[in-house]
Structure formats: C-alpha cells, structure tokens
Specification:
- The complex is a heterodimer of chains A (290) and B (315).
- With 290 residues, chain A is mainly alpha-helical.
- Chain A has two domains: 16-65, no CATH class; 75-283, Orthogonal Bundle (MetI-like fold).
- Chain A is 68% helix and 1% strand.
- Chain A has 13 helices and two strands, in the order E-E-H-H-H-H-H-H-H-H-H-H-H-H-H.
- In chain A, helix 4 packs across helix 10 (195-206), helix 5 crosses helix 8 and helix 8 packs antiparallel against helix 11 (208-223).
- In chain B, a hairpin with a 7-residue loop joins strand 1 (60-61) and strand 2.
- Chain B has one domain (84-310): Orthogonal Bundle (MetI-like fold), CATH 1.10.3720.10.
- The chains are: A mainly alpha (290), B mainly alpha (315).
- Chains A and B meet through strand 2, helix 1, helix 4, helix 5 and helix 6 of A and helix 2, helix 3, helix 5, helix 6 and helix 7 of B.
Chain lengths: 290, 315
C-alpha cells in the first residue's frame, strides 16, 4: 500500500507545486486585505497630529506617540456624562447578559440533548429556524413588547433578550450530544442524582469548551452593541455608541477616535486569543443535520 | 432499594392511545420542561411572538397611539405598487446579499481549507488575523478614514500622488461607489462563526479516507476537496450557509455607519433601512411590519433554497 505522505501536521497527497504557490499567493493577498486595515487603526492611533494630516498620507507612523490616548481621556472628561459611565454600561450589560445566557442556554441545552421528552424536537427545530433570520425583523414588534412591559430605557431591554440568544444554545446542545456520554449520565441517575444535579455536576464540567464559546459569542454581541432603539437616556448608552460619537466628531478628533477604536477592539481580541482552542473544539460539532 | 424508585423507566406504549402515552411521558419528564422553561419563555416572548405580531400588524394601520385599524392587503399593495424607494431597496438588498453571502461563504471555506495544512501554531495566528475584524465592533469605521472624501484619506492621497486622479473622489458620498465600497467592508467583517466552524470541520475528517481515495484514483487536491473533504463536512457546510445568509441580510448597520442615512441618492438603501425608516422614525408600525414580513420571507426562502442546493455536494 502507498505510504501516506504527510507534511508535519496534515496529509498532503496529490499536491502540485503550482497549486501550492497559487494558494499561498492567494492567502497572502487575503491576509493583507484583512490585516492591513487593522494595522492602520493602530498606526493612526500612534500618529502625532502633523502626521495625521500629512499629504501624501503615509501608512506607517514615523514618531509614535501616546498623545492620542491622552486626548481620549481629556475628551472623556469633558463629556457631560462621565465616560466611565459608558464603560460601566457596556461592562455591566456584557457580563450580566453573558452570564444569564450561559445559565439559561446550558440548562435548556442539557434537557434538549440528554432528556427524551415530548416536544423537544419541535423546540429545537424552532431554534434552528430562528438562526435563519436576522433580529432586525423582530425589532419593531419587540419595541411594542418592551413598551408594554415598561422596559424601554432600562438595562433590561438589552440584557434580558440576550439571555435567549439562540446561536449559543445551538452550539452548546450539539457539543453536549457529542461530548457527554449517555452511560455516564445514566449511572449518575442510577445513583439517585436528580436531573439538575446531573446537569450541574456531571454534564457542565464536561462541556467547558462549549461554555467558553457561548460566552465569547454572547460577549462579542453585547460588547459591540451600539445605539439601540430601546435606550434614550444618555447615561444608559454604551461605550461603543460613545466611541462612534468621537470617531464621527471630525478633524480635531481623528487621533482620539483611532485610539478609542484600539481600546474597543483589544478586549474581544484578547478574549478570543485566550479561548481560541476551546472555540475550535466546540465548532467541531457545530454541524447542522439536513 | 428497588431500581424503579431511583430511575423512572420510560413508560411502555402498549394498551394506550398516543395522547395518553404522550401525557404520561410529559409527566415523567416534568423536570426537563422546568429546565427548558426559562430559555423557551424568553425565546417565545422576544423571537417567536414578535414574528407572529408582525404578521398580524402588517394587515393593519397602527401608529402606537390608537388601536390598530385593519386595512387588509393595503400595506403590501402600497409597498409593491406605490413605493419606488422600496423597490430600489429590494434591488439593493438582493445585490448586497447575493454578493456578500456567497463570496463570504466561499472565502471562509477556501481560507479554512488552505490554512488547514499549516502547522497548528501558525494556523492559530492566521485564524486570528482573518477572524479579528469580525469581532472588533466598530473597527470597520477605519474604512471611512482610508476612503475619506478629502486628499488626506489614504485612497485619495495615493491615487493623487500617482497622478491617476486630479481631485479627491467622494467615495462614500458618491452614488457610483458607495454600494461597492460597503460590500467590500461587509466582506472584510464577514469571516465569523462560519469560518471557525469550517476550520474545525476540516480537522475532524479522518485522514485514512484521503489515503484510500488516493488509491482509488483521486489525482489532485480539487478532486480530493469535492469527493472527500466537502461530503465529509456537509453538516458544517449547512451550518455555515445558514449563518452566512442571515449575516448577508444583516449588514444594514455597517452601511448606515459608513454611508449615513439616507445614503446618497438612496444608492445603498436596503430593506433594513426602509424598515428602520418607517418603524423606528416615522412610527408607521403597520407599514413597517409589512416590510419586516417581506424581509423575513426573503431570508427564510433563501435559506431553504440554499439548503436544497447543498444536498447535491459531492454527487
């Protein structure tokens, strides 16, 4: 039998040199398209004023300075709503929303994946169907609901709907089906462990990658949430909203705007770097049966 | 202690009607309903109910103050026969979605496939580079600086230095460019969850299949992709397609941030903007519900269509 040809980590049978060159060229091109704008934000944030308004514009910074980050702080101080308030709003919304989503979704995912009860297929089908349309469709009707409950202009309007984000539940349920064995759960039940106890003490520790993934999915949505039709008071608005105000503030704020964008993007990127391998592991069972 | 007290056995279905059996099973699994309840109640309230409500309200005239007044098909007739901007929005939405959806899908798939053969360390760095624009929030506003209207913008500056143009182009304020620029930016932010799903899917494929295929006469990597790799990750392909389609209809906020609202000569006006215009600003709730229903039908329809197409992969 022909020996399996491998290149360090992958099977590489049937590879032509021309194809390799073409693919690498394409990858570098795409990589540049994706990476250079990100790099440009960082460069802009480090440029002193005269370099920001230089003709012809230059990609790289010549004399890097942290002046823009300082300006950002000054700008924050001048605002009538203290900037720390925007930061607090976003952090508070992101953490409570993510935590609630994790708890509700994982509990539901456990029941849907591991308990056979009438109606569970219908429920899961509805969740899959909800992945097929964007939430803008529901925004007008949700505004009516929120007004009726009296949640307009409160944190609840943002946090509570986030508890029932379906993508996280979907990923969690798929991962539970493949990662948690029925035998383990069955023997726990034989020992007299109730479903809540089995879920919390046996199933949950086995799906750690899935909760990290769910948390990232949920967190990135909430962290990046900008202005919302539910929130009118300035002191309840998000960090992202405030940054957009600075970025669109024109010439004088170009540097501070770039600095703010850098601050904003560092958090989700760092979180992803830490959890990357867990996320990829979870995605391994993300497939949708037809 | 007998086993029956510790573990409630599934009820046998003999000597019972289906309804009786279901009822028994439901009672036996009370705790399962308790566990799905918090999620399902919120899901029903904020996702299922709004869809139903929108459908109902789309047949009425409603301004949030007075009780809805039924107008039957009037909203839909007005949409399709009387609203030129809506027709333009449909056209723009289709251009936007039919470019960003498939391109982002194939871009995710191809890049995931190409980087699959890199070593794990390099692969994770490359993954981060491709994935980070999609998680970094409003970082796409940098494109407004790259393509700003004045000569300090990178694009204008470079083109002017090279002598290709004499005066700055108004990029995002020029009806000829705005749509395509927004599409480029949308694509830039589009390598998200589907991309990660493809990367993971590729890694779960059993290596021995490639060996067997080689013996069976697979000659190049493209045949390998079509006959082995893709059929093996069909479930991921399906999942990725759903996310890409939904995403391709959801770029409205990116367009608004870059091109403003309304965009110049409505050149980048999509159904989402029309919905926002009537729902969020003019409070014509009945009319905007009709828009939402049309958008809902388009999204669901294209998802089901693509699902059918994907069943043909590897055949």
């Amino acid at each position: 039998m022909k020996k399996l040809r491998t290149r360090k980590h992958a099977v590489v049978l049937n590879r032509s040199v021309g194809g390799d060159i073409g693919i690498n060229f394409f990858l570098i091109l795409m990589g540049a398209f994706m990476f250079l704008p990100m790099l440009y934000v960082v460069m802009q944030s480090l440029k002193p004023l005269d370099e920001l308004w230089m003709f012809p514009p230059r990609f790289y910074v010549i004399n890097p300075t942290f002046q823009n980050f300082g300006d950002l702080f000054t700008l924050m101080g001048e605002n009538w709503v203290p900037f720390s308030r925007y930061v607090f709003n976003t952090v508070f919304i992101s953490i409570t929303g993510t935590f609630g989503n994790l708890l509700f979704s994982s509990m539901a995912a456990y029941a849907l994946a591991k308990i056979k009860f009438p109606g569970r297929n219908v429920m899961f089908q509805m969740i899959v169907l909800s992945l097929m349309f964007h939430s803008t469709v529901t925004s007008v009707a949700n505004f009516i609901t929120m007004s009726a409950i009296g949640w307009v202009d409160t944190y609840f309007a943002i946090i509570v709907p986030a508890f029932s984000t379906t993508l996280g539940l979907y990923l969690m349920k798929q991962f539970m089906e493949s990662a948690v064995s029925d035998e383990v759960l069955e023997s726990a039940r034989l020992d007299g462990s109730g479903e809540f106890k089995t879920y919390w003490l046996i199933a949950m520790p086995m799906v750690k990658p899935a909760w990290l993934t769910l948390m990232i999915e949920s967190f990135k949505g909430l962290w990046n949430s900008g202005s919302s039709i539910y929130i009118q008071s300035e002191q309840l608005k998000s960090f992202n909203y405030a940054i957009n105000q600075i970025v669109s503030g024109g010439i004088a704020r170009a540097g501070a705007g770039a600095a703010a964008t850098v601050v904003m993007m560092i958090v989700p990127i760092t979180v992803f770097v830490i959890c990357q391998s867990n996320v990829i592991e979870t995605m391994g069972s993300s497939g949708m049966k037809d | 202690m007998s086993q029956n007290t510790a573990v409630k056995r599934p009820v046998s279905r003999k000597d019972m009607t289906r309804a009786q059996w279901t009822w028994k099973e439901m009672k036996r699994n009370k705790v399962a309903y308790l566990m799905v309840a918090p999620f399902m109640i919120l899901f029903t309230l904020f996702t299922v109910f709004p869809v139903v409500l929108s459908i109902i309200l789309s047949f009425t005239e409603f301004n949030l103050l007075q009780f809805p007044r039924p107008v039957y098909m009037d909203n839909y007739i007005r949409l399709f026969l009387d609203d030129d901007i809506f027709i333009l929005a449909i056209k723009n939405t289709f251009i936007f979605a039919s470019v960003t959806g498939p391109v982002s899908y194939f871009m995710s798939l191809m890049i995931a496939w190409f980087i699959n053969e890199l070593s794990p360390k390099i692969r994770s760095v490359v993954t981060l580079i491709f994935y980070s624009p999609s998680i970094s929030g409003s970082v796409y506003l940098i494109w407004q600086i790259l393509f700003s209207n004045d000569s300090y913008g990178f694009a204008n500056g470079t083109l002017m230095t090279l002598g290709i143009i004499d005066a700055p182009i108004l990029w995002f304020n020029d009806a000829d460019y705005v749509m395509w620029l927004c599409i480029v930016v949308a694509l830039w932010t589009s390598l998200g969850t589907a991309f990660l799903s493809f990367i993971a899917g590729l890694q779960t494929i059993d290596r021995s299949q490639y060996e067997a295929a080689s013996v069976d006469g697979i000659r190049n990597r493209w045949q390998e992709l079509w006959y082995i790799t893709l059929p093996n990750m069909r479930q991921q392909l399906m999942f990725g397609a759903v996310l890409s389609i939904t995403q391709s209809f959801g770029f409205g906020s990116v367009v608004t941030a870059l091109a403003g609202f309304p965009s110049v000569e409505y050149a980048a006006h999509t159904i989402m903007h029309h919905l926002d215009d009537y729902g969020g600003q003019r409070f014509e709730v009945g009319y905007s519900s009709a828009i939402a229903v049309v958008l809902f039908a388009i999204m669901l329809g294209s998802n089901l269509l693509v699902k059918k197409m994907l069943k043909k992969v590897g055949q």
